[in-house]
Amino acid sequence: MYLQSRNGKNLSSYFPEITRAVRTTVPAGTVLDGELVIWEPERERTSFALLQRRITAGARVLQLARARPAHYIVFDVLADQRGPLVELPLTARRDRLVALLADGPAVLQVSPQTSDPHEARQWLETWSAAGVEGLL
Predict the structure, then answer these.
(1) Has residue 136 been placed in a domain?
(2) How many domains does the chain have?
């Protein structure tokens, strides 16, 4: 199990709380797609700078993980222990993802989803102030 950046870099050692949560919750062979975030309560928003600080923390990474835990916001499940799931409709993958993380730790969160355009507009308006850059 490892966390991989979009550029293919292994990030597992920088986010031990996420690595541990995935290892204890997600079956081997499962491929998840999501985004790492760290909440900055002083600014009431997510912080890209705090994510970057983890990658340069060296021996202090465990200290930073305890002080400001990361969260993995999961969008999709792309494969499970039986193989690829990408040919399944998104609704079927979403059902599997929700079931998989239903009793998971708080650091693993299923991304909210809606088909209501009004609700999506409200999310975009309110969540932008908290550091969410957009909706998919």
Answers:
(1) no
(2) 1
